[in-house]
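Help wanted!
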Amino acid sequence: MGRKGSIELETSEINFVIVGHRAETSPDFPLNDLCGAAGRWDGLARCINTALLLSHEIRKDTNIHLILLGGKDPPKILSVSGHDVRYLNPDERSTAALMKKALNLPLSPSLRRPLCPSPGLNISRGGLDEFIDGMEGRAFLLDEHGEDIHDNEVADLLLKGGPPLFFFLSDDMDLSVEERGSVMKAVHGTISVGPRVLQAHQVVAVLNNILDRTRN
Amino acid sequence: MGRKGSIELETSEINFVIVGHRAETSPDFPLNDLCGAAGRWDGLARCINTALLLSHEIRKDTNIHLILLGGKDPPKILSVSGHDVRYLNPDERSTAALMKKALNLPLSPSLRRPLCPSPGLNISRGGLDEFIDGMEGRAFLLDEHGEDIHDNEVADLLLKGGPPLFFFLSDDMDLSVEERGSVMKAVHGTISVGPRVLQAHQVVAVLNNILDRTRN
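Answered by r_m:
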């Protein structure tokens, strides 16, 4: 974070929150068209991979939460815990197939308790506001117009108070005005990882690397 | 690179070189099993995505070269130019499908001139040694045991002399002793992006972010 060796983030729980604006919420989307008919589940699958998977192990201190807003049965919140998840492979297709198990569970509008279709997966009825209502920790919005994460003040802001940390990212679409309003009420700041506008999974990779360095 | 604002990498040509040890070299691999029967084409597709694609544009100053060593017709060198490529979508499946167009071209053992099956794609007969023989630029091996890329001496080594730059990475398998020997003769140093052992596309994301900062 620009002050090598001086920052230590101890036992941590890192949470990535990805808003999937068009992501299909019913389990009948085609695995052969993740980019199209599935509403960009390809990008969400890459986020799951990059958030949770190292080369040959799983980041047990990291979770990812998908806010699924598209398709036939929105909204849904699908969380994957690095500590508990099983049967997770690195490729987009098998990741999306595993997530379909969660989408296959019937969720009544009034359901508040998450259902667990497979180890480490939890799904519940809700959108961004419901997720934020249940969130406990320090949160940040990742945004191209945010403050540079390598700025010392940002590093202080990020690490002050310690984990759990929540990082909100949007998929290939910008947050709507309403969504941004909800998120801005919940976060401690808006941060950027660099000068180019990256795909969400690329931002996750850079963030994980920065956090890895704080915990080394 | 640890010295914010003091380093400038001007007009650049960045090259990622990924060794795909088991990557299928004939075009008949199943798009439904990139992770298995295709010999980890899922990982190569993610590397292509992360090397060349930003959120909504292409990195025109970046190329990726795949050294394909597996399957029924090895070895092949498949290069994708960010400047020229067309029809490249972000998902693994369509990326692999596009690359099949190159694998479908017949390559005689003696062929030296690359063939171009689609804009920005070039394929030729050869492996790691042939690629290195034809390489012109400053090269580095990315490796978990390398020097930290944020070390000032590494930053100097990396940027001294300017582009074109070549970054060698392996897929999910380590380089063999012979492969490592070939690469070590060609590179200026071995560098690591951080304390955890990442997937190749995650390393590419971190490297691109670091290079973006030098060019901002």
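OP: Thanks! One thing I noticed: The longest strand of chain B covers residues 14-24.
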